[in-house]
From TrEMBL:
Belongs to the sigma-54 factor family. This is RNA polymerase sigma-54 factor. GO terms for biological process: DNA-templated transcription initiation. Residues 334-491 form the RNA polymerase sigma factor 54 DNA-binding domain. Residues 128-319 form the RNA polymerase sigma factor 54 core-binding domain. One of its GO terms (molecular function) is sigma factor activity. Keywords: DNA-binding, DNA-directed RNA polymerase, Nucleotidyltransferase, Sigma factor, Transcription, Transcription regulation, Transferase.
Length: 499
């Protein structure tokens, strides 16, 4: 093989996205709330952008000086600065639109007093409605510890133990006590650590700082319980068998009857296996629907974008006029030209988002009409490619349009992605969504004989009788996703036939 070095010219065809296309895709992917934030950011960076805030709760006063979404002139809808020409025609159009203009050039973008007042009110409302941070597990335990009269060395170790506890893990102590002591600890130090741990475990919630499930439940036991001895035996020696519902093995090892074991197990269910979980912060998103689904006079579903809070943007007439001012410097003109392009791209992207999101949402609704009318069991298989073909866009456009978007429907506020589900075919060739199969699976398990519950193989057979051909591994996968125990764990031994 001959190797050589040299220069070579080649022709390559590559595809690059224009900045305008990239911005359009970014704007399309934003939900309404994020779009409002993006507009505020753009307005702070581009003084040529002005907005008309639309409050749907206030009647239209017919202010002719402000453009509206439906009455903007043709000149305002399109303004693209051509850097290769002098743009005389564009500038003449802009000049004709100007009524009264300021006599001086103010380089700073000043917001109106009303707008600043409205923004201040919105920020005040956000602060007033903000949810206060709940007390953490560590703070709750430290407050209790501070009220106790204990030695300083024990208190320091107790604080160290508390610092390792995590509410997301249920409040268990996962760090060995020896690791919480300095190097070269003595037996006396370990004894102090054990005392500190006992103090922490005496705090509320009961069972906190346990090293495993058995210790957690034992700390919560009270000798006043009716079956204290039996509960202790099961917790100490048969906790895994209880979890797997192996009651006959427990009965054989302990001599307890099946009925007694089930009674004790029911009592154990009253204990808390994760005492620290109550302090886990749960994030509940404040969902704002981007699309409203309504019925028209003919009873048909029609979508409407809930973007009344998205302001109408237009390019400042003052800066349009400034381009015609002979006193404007070359740098000034260049700055305004660039900002005009940026502003027009943003306006066009928002309009394109509105159009695309409306078409995609309407196509989804038309496909899933039975789901909206009849409920989850009537949902039909739907892929994004089907909507893309129907609307006439690329599948990635559909993906961006439905990403993090919500629709207000007669069945609640649902994410647009909820309408896209996979499926299979029945023996008759009819498409069936996986959601429908899961509902049927739940129905079969709810109605099964608990003395002899269906195995996964048996569930496959029962689904096939209903016209749904599904593999056993698929049944197992969905059963686990639905948090349904195995057939052995679902078995009620008190109902089983005795040999």
């Amino acid at each position: 093989m001959r190797m050589s070095m040299g220069m070579q010219a080649r022709q390559l065809q590559t595809q690059k996205l224009a900045p305008k296309m990239i911005q359009s895709m970014e704007i399309l992917q934003l939900p309404t709330v994020a779009l409002q934030e993006r507009i505020e950011q753009e307005m702070s960076e581009n003084p040529l952008l002005e907005q008309q805030d639309v409050d749907p709760s206030q009647p239209d006063e017919g202010d002719d000086e402000l453009p509206t979404k439906d009455t903007r002139s043709e000149n305002e809808k399109e303004l693209v600065v051509d850097n290769d020409h002098d743009n005389k025609e564009d500038f003449e159009r802009l000049q004709n639109m100007v009524s009264e203009l300021p006599n001086t050039f103010d380089e700073s973008f000043k917001r109106s007093a009303n707008r600043m007042s409205d923004e201040a009110d919105r920020r005040h409302d956000l602060m007033a409605n903000a949810v206060s941070r709940p007390e953490s597990l560590n703070d709750f335990l430290l407050h209790q510890l501070a009220e106790m009269d204990i030695d300083d060395d024990v208190e320091q170790l107790a604080e160290r133990i508390i610092s390792t506890l995590d509410a997301r893990d249920g409040g268990y102590l996962r760090t060995p006590l020896a690791d919480l002591l300095p190097a070269g600890q003595s037996d006396a130090d370990l004894e102090v650590a054990e005392r500190a741990l006992a103090i922490v475990q005496s705090l509320e919630p009961t069972g906190i700082a346990a090293r495993d499930l058995s210790e957690c439940l034992m700390v919560q036991l009270n000798r006043s319980f009716p079956h204290y001895e039996e509960m202790s035996t099961l917790i100490r020696n048969h906790i895994a068998d209880l979890a797997e519902n192996r009651l006959p093995q427990i009965a054989k090892a302990t001599g307890f009857s099946i009925d007694l074991i089930q009674t004790v197990r029911d009592e154990l269910h009253g204990l808390n296996p994760k005492p620290g979980a109550a302090f886990m912060e749960t994030y509940v998103p404040n969902v704002t629907p981007d699309i409203i689904l309504e019925r028209d006079d003919d009873g048909e579903f029609k979508v409407r974008l809930d973007d009344d809070r998205v302001p109408t943007l237009f390019i400042s007439e003052y800066y349009r006029r400034r381009l015609q001012d002979p006193k404007a410097t070359a740098e000034e003109r260049e700055f305004i030209k660039n900002k005009v392009n940026s502003a027009q791209w943003l306006i066009d992207s928002i309009e394109q988002r509105r159009s695309t999101l409306t078409k995609v949402s309407q196509a989804i609704v038309e496909h899933q009409k039975r789901f909206l009318d009849e409920g989850p069991e009537a949902i039909e298989p739907l892929k994004m490619q089907q909507i893309a073909d129907k609307v006439g866009v690329h599948v990635t456009t559909v993906s961006r349009a439905v990403d993090d978007k919500w629709m207000q429907t007669p069945r609640g506020i649902l994410p647009l992605k909820r309408f896209f589900v996979g499926g299979t075919q029945t023996e008759d060739g009819e498409d069936v969504a996986w959601d429908t199969i899961r509902l049927k699976l739940q129905e079969l398990i709810d109605k099964e004989d608990k003395s002899d519950p269906y195995s996964d193989e048996k569930l496959v057979e029962e689904l096939k009788k209903a016209g749904m051909t599904v593999a056993r591994r698929t049944v197992t996968k969905y059963r686990k996703k639905m948090a349904i125990p195995s057939s052995r764990q679902r078995r009620d031994w008190s109902l089983s036939k005795k040999d």
